[in-house]
Amino acid sequence: MTIFGNVLVVVVIQLHSQLHTPMYFFLVNLSFLEILYTSTIIPNTLRNFLREDKAISFVGCFTQMFIFISLGGSECVLLGTMAYDRYVAICRPLQYNTIMSPSFCFHLALFSWSIGFLNSLVHTIFTAMLPFCHERLIKHYFCEIPHILKLSCKDTQVNEILIFILGGSMTVGSLILTLLSYTCIVVAVLRIPSINRKRKAFSTCTSHLLVVSIFFGTVIFIYLRPTSQSSSEQDRVISVVYGVVTPLFNPVIYSFRNKEFQRALQKVLQKVPQT
Q1: Which of 35, 38, 14 is nearest to 25 (CA)?
Q2: CA 26, CA 75: separation in Å to the nearest integer?
Q3: Number of other CB atoms surrounding residue 77 within 10 Å
Q4: For 7-60, how does the pLDDT look when each residue is reduced to its tens digit (9 = 90+)?
Q5: What is the rounded average pLDDT of the residues 244-253?
Q6: What is the 3-class SS of the chain, one letter each residue?
Q7: How many Å apart are CA 122 and CA 112, to the nearest integer?
Q8: What distance in Å separates the CA atoms of residue 3 and residue 64, rounded to the nearest whole number?
Q9: CA angle at residue 202 from 175 to 257, to 5 degrees?
Q10: Nearest-5° Cα angle at 44, 41 to 46
Q11: Tens digits of per-residue pLDDT, 184-196?
Q12: What is the average pLDDT value for the chain, to the nearest integer?
């Protein structure tokens, strides 16, 4: 369902020229992220439900961890970028096409992907260098850093500091950009005399704010706290939210509730040959 929903978003936006705008360009990037995000952990998790042997190789575990953290970090930065896009659209509408040019949007998206992968590369290398001499049982449904660190027989303080500094800078930085953007948006919208125009302006932001709240809230709770304070059962539930639930509902929250996207979807479906 997650892959179908996000693929449908990408296909509709690509086929409908009226949706070739910066906002939908970032939505395409987000949908690609969600497709890869889900494909990294869910297939192996479903396999573990069906098999008694739930083992994963060392290489497989760290490959999964690297890709998952890369995509999570990229999504974190991309959500901040999307908040900036909404700020320009509402607070500087006459300059929107000039500021959010195709070239600038491409570089913003490239920056989001690059930061996520560089951040993950550092964490993966430093985690892979640790000795693992305890029972190699990961009390989680996929390879996530806090639970891998618990398996090491060496002090993991350096790794935790790296997570706090690098991951914290990226997460908190994106969150601050989002909060600043929406503070300016709220101030600008409150100055609009027309109630209908106020509602329309706020409606373009509510979907993004909902996703940001869920994603940032759960990620900060999991990663920006000491490993010793984490609870395996609690972490599993929370990670399901940002690893499974958010990618599933993002297409619904962002696109299928959007009237402009609904009209585009209807036009695309009308062109599909009836069998």
Answers
A1: 14
A2: 10
A3: 23
A4: 999 998 988 888 889 988 998 999 999 899 888 888 888 888 888 888 888 899
A5: 80
A6: CHHHHHHHHHHHHHHCHHHCCHHHHHHHHHHHHHHHHHHHHHHHHHHHHHCCCCCCCHHHHHHHHHHHHHHHHHHHHHHHHHHHHHHHHHHCHHHHHHHCCHHHHHHHHHHHHHHHHHHHHHHHHHHHCCCCCCCCCCCCCCCCHHHHHCCCCCCCHHHHHHHHHHHHHHHHHHHHHHHHHHHHHHHHHHCCCCHHHHHHHHHHHHHHHHHHHHHHHHHHHHHCCCHHHCCHHHHHHHHHHHHHHHHHHHHHHHHHCCHHHHHHHHHHHHHCCCC
A7: 16
A8: 18
A9: 95
A10: 105
A11: 888 888 887 777 7
A12: 83
| Residue 170 contacts residue 73 (beta carbons within 8 Å) | yes
Tokens of 27: 């939505």
The full set of domains in the chain, from first to last, is: 2-271 (1.20.1070.10)
